UniProtKB/TrEMBL annotation, chain A:
<feature type="domain" description="Fumarylacetoacetase-like C-terminal">
    <location>
        <begin position="37"/>
        <end position="242"/>
    </location>
</feature>
<protein>
    <submittedName>
        <fullName>4-hydroxyphenylacetate degradation bifunctional isomerase/decarboxylase, N-terminal subunit</fullName>
    </submittedName>
</protein>
<keyword id="KW-0413">Isomerase</keyword>
<dbReference type="GO" id="GO:0046872">
    <property type="term" value="F:metal ion binding"/>
</dbReference>
<dbReference type="GO" id="GO:0008704">
    <property type="term" value="F:5-carboxymethyl-2-hydroxymuconate delta-isomerase activity"/>
</dbReference>
<dbReference type="Pfam" id="PF01557">
    <property type="entry name" value="FAA_hydrolase"/>
</dbReference>
<dbReference type="GO" id="GO:0018800">
    <property type="term" value="F:5-oxopent-3-ene-1,2,5-tricarboxylate decarboxylase activity"/>
</dbReference>
<keyword id="KW-0479">Metal-binding</keyword>
<dbReference type="InterPro" id="IPR036663">
    <property type="entry name" value="Fumarylacetoacetase_C_sf"/>
</dbReference>
TrEMBL record, chain B:
<dbReference type="GO" id="GO:1901023">
    <property type="term" value="P:4-hydroxyphenylacetate catabolic process"/>
</dbReference>
<dbReference type="InterPro" id="IPR036663">
    <property type="entry name" value="Fumarylacetoacetase_C_sf"/>
</dbReference>
<comment type="function">
    <text>Decarboxylates OPET (5-oxo-pent-3-ene-1,2,5-tricarboxylic acid) into HHDD (2-hydroxy-hept-2,4-diene-1,7-dioate) and isomerizes it to OHED (2-oxo-hept-3-ene-1,7-dioate).</text>
</comment>
<keyword id="KW-0479">Metal-binding</keyword>
<comment type="pathway">
    <text>Aromatic compound metabolism; 4-hydroxyphenylacetate degradation; pyruvate and succinate semialdehyde from 4-hydroxyphenylacetate: step 5/7.</text>
</comment>
<comment type="similarity">
    <text>Belongs to the FAH family.</text>
</comment>
<dbReference type="GO" id="GO:0018800">
    <property type="term" value="F:5-oxopent-3-ene-1,2,5-tricarboxylate decarboxylase activity"/>
</dbReference>
<dbReference type="InterPro" id="IPR011234">
    <property type="entry name" value="Fumarylacetoacetase-like_C"/>
</dbReference>
<dbReference type="InterPro" id="IPR012684">
    <property type="entry name" value="HPA_isomer/decarb_C"/>
</dbReference>
Length: 245, 254
């Protein structure tokens, strides 16, 4: 089962279908979910490996003890086909290919063993960001610009995903494969992330967790005129045009 | 006008609060005290300023920042007036932070400081609890410190912007069990309200209901289960909250 959202006569409606070919894709879709969006930073083994030395120095002093969370505010959320707007004067802008975990029911203090019971399904997220020069202070300026979080095209029911911790993730810019990674590179598993967040934050139906993004190297840079597409194995392909502000 | 949201028999009502501090429904009915529960008066993005009072910066041994130091909270953390906040077991230091909260009244993008005040819909009182034991130096202050369930009382109501003559000259006070612990004045904000609205609206679009917690002055203290904590902003409201233990909180979930 697939769930998606689109605008019909000025209102966003939620629809379901059994196969993705049944989804009308001629017009942009709305973000596949409506709720809080929590990202897990520094949750990619290759990224963390490049920063390992830095974490012993000021201002960090010690490596992260717990998953590092951030918030993608609602002004950032857009759907499949909607336009990512990049500023002209803030330096490079990077795609952030990631698996999105969609919560299915209220989750407070759930264990890792129970965690997937609280998941509705999965979606694709492009966690767009300016350069991440520091992880010391909250990344509001880098991560919370309007349109900086495409989500979609749809939510695939969890029953169709055998193992969320072993999905390949490919990024294409203008139809060229530029980056390959996978959820097997996550430092903290999908179950661990849900359990950790719910240990102090109640998650509600429709909330979304961005599982982790890789090191943003030059291959992930996006510019006005590009079309960026993220493909998460068995989940879907999320494509968005990029436009200069 | 003062606007609030309350729950009566599992129904959420938008209400007003009259000059006698009585809650009045849309149809004009006055609700008896005790017959309703206070809810957070607004819904939207939540921005919080760290170290935005010079005296508080000194208290934490920080230099005031060169630009606003903003962090975000998620809505899970909000509770209304006269609700309970739990203190986790085995932590050493949990403190309140009394703050003036600016509530955005209309959509704002790339707003100048000169125009910024016309985007304010109203004001309310926020208490931005923090648990210092959980601080880490990544996206500091991290969500485990600042976006915990029950850890951000807000309210009791929103006071319309035109009711507050000068939001930059309001006394803030916090009492624990009636004893004055914290006192400051919004005239000491490092970055004032126009600066904050202009700064944030350059980054992103602000929408009605978005909240800017403008920071807290010096005077922090540890709170323990059983403490009644009252945060007050002159002319805006008095927000009361009780600290409970983690086991009491867990019992309340079932």
């Amino acid at each position: 089962m697939y769930t998606y959202r689109l605008e019909e006569s000025g209102k966003v409606v939620t629809k379901t279908c059994d196969a993705t070919f049944a989804i009308e894709m001629t017009e942009p879709l709305a973000p596949a979910v409506k709720g809080a969006v929590i990202g897990v930073a520094l949750n990619h083994k290759d990224l963390v490996a490049t920063l390992a030395d830095q974490f012993e120095d000021k201002p960090y002093v010690t490596a992260p003890k717990t998953p590092v969370l951030h918030i993608k505010t609602d002004n950032t959320h857009i759907g499949h086909g909607q336009t990512i707007k990049v500023p002209t004067d803030k330096g490079a802008v990077y795609a952030g290919p990631a698996l999105g975990i969609v919560i299915g029911k209220t989750a407070t203090r759930v264990t890792e063993e129970q965690a997937l019971d609280f998941v509705k399904g999965y979606t694709v997220v492009n966690e767009v960001s300016l350069a991440e020069t520091s992880f010391y202070r909250p990344a509001v300026k880098a991560k919370c610009r309007d349109t900086f979080c495409p989500i979609g095209p749809w939510v695939v029911d969890k029953s169709l995903i055998t193992n969320p911790n072993n999905l390949s993730i490919k990024t294409y810019v203008n139809d060229e494969l530029v980056h390959t990674t996978g959820t097997d590179r996550l430092v903290h598993s999908v179950e661990k992330i849900i359990s950790y967040i719910s240990s102090f934050m109640t998650l509600e139906e429709g909330d979304l967790i961005i599982a982790g993004t890789p090191l943003r190297d030059a291959s992930l840079e996006i510019k006005g005129g590009d079309i960026v597409m993220i493909d998460v194995e068995a989940v879907g392909r999320l494509a968005n045009p990029v436009e200069q502000e | 006008m003062k606007h609030a949201r309350v729950k009566v028999n599992d129904q959420t009502l938008n209400v007003t609060v009259n000059d006698n501090n009585q809650v009045v429904t849309a149809s004009g009915e006055v609700l008896d005290a005790g017959s309703f529960t206070w809810l957070p008066p607004c819904e939207g993005k939540m921005f919080v300023l760290a170290i935005n009072y010079a005296d508080h910066a000194a208290e934490l041994s920080f230099k005031a920042p060169d630009e606003p130091l903003v962090f975000l909270k998620n809505s899970n953390t909000l509770i209304g007036h006269e609700q309970n906040t739990y203190r986790p077991d085995n932590v050493d230091y949990m403190h309140y932070e009394c703050e003036l909260v600016v509530v955005i009244g209309k959509e704002a993008k790339n707003v100048s400081k000169e125009d910024a005040m016309s985007y304010v819909g109203g004001y309310t009182v926020g208490n931005d609890y923090a648990i210092r034991d959980y601080l880490e130096n990544y996206y500091r202050p991290n969500l485990r410190v600042k976006s915990r369930d029950t850890c951000t009382p807000i309210g009791p109501y929103i006071v319309d912007a035109d009711q507050i003559q000068d939001p930059h000259n309001l006394v803030l006070r916090t009492y624990i069990n009636g004893e004055l612990k914290q006192e400051g004045n919004t005239k000491d904000l490092v970055f004032d309200i126009p600066h904050l609205i202009s700064y944030l609206s350059e980054i992103m679009t602000l929408t009605p209901g978005d909240m800017i917690f403008t920071g807290t002055p010096e005077g922090l203290a540890d709170v323990k289960p059983g403490d009644v904590v009252t945060t007050e902003v002159e002319g805006v409201g008095v927000l009361t909250n009780t600290i409970i233990s983690e086991s009491e909180y867990l019992a309340s979930l079932n």
